[in-house]
Specification:
By secondary structure, this protein is α+β, with helices and mostly antiparallel strands. Helix 3 packs across helix 6 and helix 4 runs parallel beside helix 5. The chain folds into 4 domains: 54 residues, no CATH class; 62 residues, Beta Barrel (OB fold (Dihydrolipoamide Acetyltransferase, E2P)), CATH 2.40.50; 109 residues; 57 residues, no CATH class. It is built from 9 helices and 19 strands.
Length: 318
């Protein structure tokens, strides 16, 4: 059985596609201003970065790169654009969103609930007073994997993946014990599942153990293809065990989203636990200094918690 679990949390909306009791896709959409993917809105060309090909536009709430440029457009001109890639955090900087020329009236892009509803798979909205179906499916464990990059897998043999998002690509390093061929095959399935679960796009590199023989390497390639939905491009495993995958990257992956502001992510997870505490919910909470700072920077979150629980929370830095 497959169903989407949806939860309108504090500071974020959560969704997980659960199949046979396990999460196969985990998604978080932050409550923040700015257009979503697919939004159409007016903008003004403020810079031509590559003549006739690419530029930078300003819009209400930010800036974006635009390609291609409409023929004959000049700097300072106004135009209608569609958001084709959301802003993506990359270490200490954020990659600007991308837009393309568009026509028609302004519209917002679909939110997370709209997108999962459009999948045609049943959607169940969760409430804080109900049993925690997300947690039962492994929600916290999935977030921990995204934050730390440590992913344990099992198959005919067991092993571990070490995932490292970088500005250039997301890297997976495979670790385990011989025999190497079944280890690589199990790792290929685990990597494909992790890419789908965490919505990882862009350039992806996988460092498998070195295995000999074209047939063995082809079996690993086939396992990736079977577990990863199209569209994507992939190199064949080379003699050193390296495979590169290229996927569309329309928005930040779950690891990128959480690692961009770990303190805020930890604060939102804390608010979720407090909201789900059976009444009477405690009013006083001791938190780490970084979580305390994140909560102070987002007073609307604590206000929402008070409204939902009926208790005004008091957070003290530990």
């Amino acid at each position: 059985m497959a169903e989407w679990l949806h939860e309108a949390g504090i500071g974020e909306t959560r969704a997980a596609l659960v199949v046979d009791g396990a999460i196969v896709e985990a998604r978080i959409e932050l409550d923040r201003p700015g257009p979503r993917l697919g939004a159409v809105f007016p903008a003004r060309l403020i810079e031509i970065t590559v003549k006739g090909r690419e530029g930078r536009v300003a819009f209400d709430g930010g800036e974006a790169m635009i390609a291609p440029l409409p023929p004959g457009i000049t700097q300072g001109a106004t135009l209608t654009v569609e958001l084709t890639r959301e802003a993506i955090p990359e270490g200490r900087r954020t990659k600007l969103p991308r837009v393309a020329p568009a026509e028609g009236p302004p519209r917002d892009g679909p939110d997370l609930l709209t997108r999962i509803t459009a999948s045609g798979i049943p959607v169940r909205t969760l409430h804080a007073h109900e049993p925690d179906a997300l947690e039962a499916a492994g929600w916290s464990e999935g977030l921990e994997e995204a934050m730390t990059g440590d992913i344990v897998f099992y198959g005919s043999v067991g092993g571990a993946l070490r995932m490292s998002p970088t500005p250039a690509m997301t890297l997976f390093d495979v670790d385990g014990y011989p025999p190497l061929e079944p280890l690589a095959l199990a790792a290929a399935k685990a990597v494909a599942a992790a890419i789908v679960r965490m919505d990882i796009g862009g350039s992806i590199g996988i460092d498998f153990p070195t295995i000999t023989g074209k047939a063995a390497r082809a079996a690993v390639d086939a396992a990736i293809d079977a577990g990863l939905p199209q569209p994507f491009d992939r190199t064949a495993m080379n003699g050193f065990g390296f495979v590169q995958i290229i996927r569309r990257r329309p928005r930040a992956s779950l690891p990128e989203l959480l690692r961009a502001d770990p303190a805020a992510a930890e604060a939102r997870a804390l608010l979720r636990r407090i909201e789900r505490t059976p009444p009477p919910a405690p009013a006083n909470h001791r938190v780490s200094p970084r979580v305390h700072a994140a909560l102070r920077a987002n007073p609307a979150w604590t206000a929402a918690l008070a409204q939902r629980t009926g208790v005004t929370p008091i957070f003290e830095s530990a």
